[in-house]
Amino acid sequence: MRVLSLIFSLVVFVIGFFTPTQSATSSEQTAVPLPPRPNILFIFSDDHATNAISCYGSKLIDTPHIDRIAREGSRFRNCFCTNSICGPSRAVILTGKHSHLNGFIDNSSTFNGAQPTFPKLLQQSGYQTSLFGKWHLVSHPTGFDHWEVLPGQGDYYNPVFLGPPKTDGQAATKRTIEGYVTDIVTDLAIEWLDRDRDASKPFLMMLQHKAPHREWAPGPEELDLFRDVIFPEPATLFDDYSGRAGGAAKQEMTIAHHMNNLDLAIVPPKNLSAHQRARYEAAFAHENAALLRDNPKGDTRTRWNYQRYIANYLRCIAGVDRNIGRVLKYLDTTGLAKDTIVIYSSDQGFYLGEHGWYDKRWMYDESLRMPLVVRWPGLIQPGLVTDQLVQNLDFAPTFLALAGVKPPADMQGENLLPILRGESPADWRKSVYYHYYEFPQPHRVPSHYGVRTLTHKLIYYDAMNAWELFDLVKDPNEMQSIHGEVPSQSVFDSLRAELSRLRTAAGDSTGKSLPAGQ
Ligand code: CA
After folding, report:
1. How confident is the model at residue 18 (pLDDT cuts 50, 70, 90)?
2. Which one of 168, 171, 183, 435 has the fewest CB atoms closer than 10 angstroms to its CB?
3. Could you tell me which of 135, 117, 137 has the C-alpha nearest to residue 127?
4. What is the CA(2)–ligand 1 centre distance, in A?
5. pLDDT value, residue 458
6. What's the 85 CA to ligand 1 centre distance in angstroms?
7. How far, in Å, is the centroid of ligand 1 from the Cα of 153?
8. CATH for 240
9. Rounded to the nearest whole angstrom, what is the distance from the C-alpha of residue 146 to the centroid of ligand 1?
10. HEC states along 276-322?
11. Is the CB of residue 393 less than 8 Å from the CB of residue 97?
12. Is residue 462 in some structural domain?
C-alpha cells in the first residue's frame, strides 16, 4: 500500500513537472501579488494605424521604441475601438462607457466633465494625475492635478497650449510654445515628472500626441527621412468598391480626389516662423518642382499623392517613436521604470491607402483596430502576444483595477488584468460591438453599427438600410460582402442575433433599429 502510494505520488509529481507551460505559467502568475499602486504612464497618439508599427509587422517603418514596450511587455493583436473617430474614442477611454452613454457620439459633441472618469477616480484614490497634449473633448479636463492641452486639433508648429484657469470658472490660461508639437508635449511631460511629481504618491500621466493626425506636418528632425524611398502600395489602393453595399463608393476620403495642398505639403503650414518655413519648403522643393513640371494625371497622380502622404505620415510617426524613446530613457535613468506601467495606444486605426483612402470612421479593420502595447515589469511576461478581443472600453476598468480601485458597476468594459497575466479566461468575450454616428459630413461615411468576431464581421448601415457580411479568414481585406449568399445564411443569422444581443447588453437603442428581415 505504502509503495503504491509512493508510486502514485511520484506519477503526480512527474505529471505536474511536465504540465504544459501555459498552465504552469498561469498558476505561477496568479500567485504573484500585484505591486502596490504602480505609476501609470499612458502614451497615446492620434490616428496611428498598426500597419505603421514594426512590431505589428509594418512593411513601411521601424518603430524601435514602441517595439521595445511590446518586447518587454505585451502586444494586443485584436484591440478594437467602439467608434472610430478621435473625440468619441477618447471619451470611451476616459469613462469605460460606449458613446451613447458617455454622450460624446461624434466630433460635434462636448464632453460632460462632471461624469465619473478613471483619472478622477484614480485622483480620489490618492494618485497624482496629469495630462499633456491633445485632448479634443471641448470642455476643460477634469480629474487632473495638472493639465496642459492643445485647443481643438492644435498646431504642429509653435502650438498654443491651454492650462488650468487661475481661478475656478475663469477662462483657461494660454501660452504659445515655439517648436514642434511632439517634442514639446514630451518636454512638458518630462518637466512635470522631474519638477512637479510628488514622490509620496503614485502618478497617472496621460501623454497624448497630436501626431500623426491630418495634415501630417513632420518636425524638423524628421523632414529629411525617407527621401527617395518608394513605399509599397497597398493591394487595395485602386479599389473599385464593387462587392460592398454602396456606401464605400460614395465617401469623400480618397487619396485620389479628397486631399488638399496642405495635406500634400505642396504648401507649408501657415504659422511657421521664417526660419521654420524656409526649412520646410526646402525639404519638399525638389519634389514639388518636379510635380509642377510633370503634372501627372489619373492613377499616376494618385500614386504620387500616396507616396507624399505616406512619407509625411510616417515622418510624423518617427517623431512620436523618437519621443517615446526619450520618455523610456527618462524612466530608466531615474529608476521609475520598475514601478511604472507604460501603455502605448492610439485613438483608432487609419487608412494608409487601403481602399484608396486616408482617414478612419469605417468598421473595416484598418480603422477599427487600435495599437495596444503594455509594459509592466515583474508582472507581464516579456513578449506576451494575445489575440483575445479587447476594446478601448476596457482601458478605464483596467487602469482602475491595476491601481487597486474597484471600477464603478456601470462601467461597461472588461478588466484586462487576467490577459496581462498571461491567462486565457474561458468566459472572455467572443465578439465586439461597434457604433459609428458622424454622417454625412465631413467625409460622407454612412452611420453604421456591427459586430466583429475573430473570424467574421457583420455591419448594418442604418443610414442606408444595408448590410455587409465578411469572412475575415478568406477575405481579410474585406473586398467581397457575402451577405445574401445562400451558404452564408447561417453565419448571418447567428451574427444578427449576436448584434441584437450586444445592442441590448450595451443599452444602445440609438440609431435606426435593426430591420426585422435581412
Ligand atoms: Ca484620431
Report:
1. very low
2. 168
3. 117
4. 69
5. 98
6. 5
7. 10
8. 3.40.720.10
9. 23
10. HHHHHHHHHHHHHHHHHHHCCCHHHHHHHHHHHHHHHHHHHHHHHHH
11. yes
12. no
Please report the pLDDT score of residue 446 as a whole number. 97
CA angle 328, 334, 337 (to 5 degrees): 50
Q: Could you tell me the distance, in angstroms and rounded to a whole number, from the CA of residue 492 to the centre of ligand 1? A: 31
Distance CA 393, CA 432 (A): 10
**307 within some domain:** yes
Ligand 1 centre from 333 Cα, in Å? Answer: 32
Neighbours of ion ligand 1 (CB under 5 A): 46-47, 86, 347
Whole-number Å distance, alpha carbon 213 to ligand 1 midpoint, is 7
C-alpha 348 to ligand 1 mean position (Å) = 6
Map residue 79 onto helix, strand or coil: strand
Q: Which pTM does this prediction carry?
A: 0.93
Cell of 260: 488638399
State which residues form the domain around 370.
39-420
Ligand 1: centre distance to CA 136 (Å): 9
Residue 263 pLDDT grade (very low, low, confident, very high; cuts 50, 70, 90): very high
| Distance between Cα 360 and ligand 1 center (Å) | 8
pLDDT digits (tens, 9 = 90+) for 21-77: 333 333 334 445 666 799 999 999 999 999 999 999 999 999 999 999 999 999 999
pLDDT of residue 15: 35
Q: Which three cell numbers stand for residue 8?
A: 502514485
Q: Using CA atoms, how far apart are residues 82 and 396, in angstroms rounded to an integer?
A: 14
Q: Among 434, 455, 313, which residue's Cα sits nearest to residue 367?
A: 434
The answer to whether position 47 is within a domain reads yes
Distance from the CA of 47 to the center of ligand 1, in angstroms? 4
Q: How many structural domains does the chain have?
A: 1
121 within some domain: yes
- Give me ligand 1 centre to Cα 416, in Å: 23
User: Per the structure block, which three cell numbers stand in for 219?
Assistant: 518636425
Q: From the CA of 423, how far away is ligand 1's center (Å)? A: 31
Angle at 93 between CA 172 and CA 419, to 5 degrees: 145
Q: Give me the torsion for CA of 388, 79, 340, 91, rounded to 10°.
A: -130
For ligand 1, the distance from its centroid to the CA atom of residue 50, given in whole angstroms, is: 13
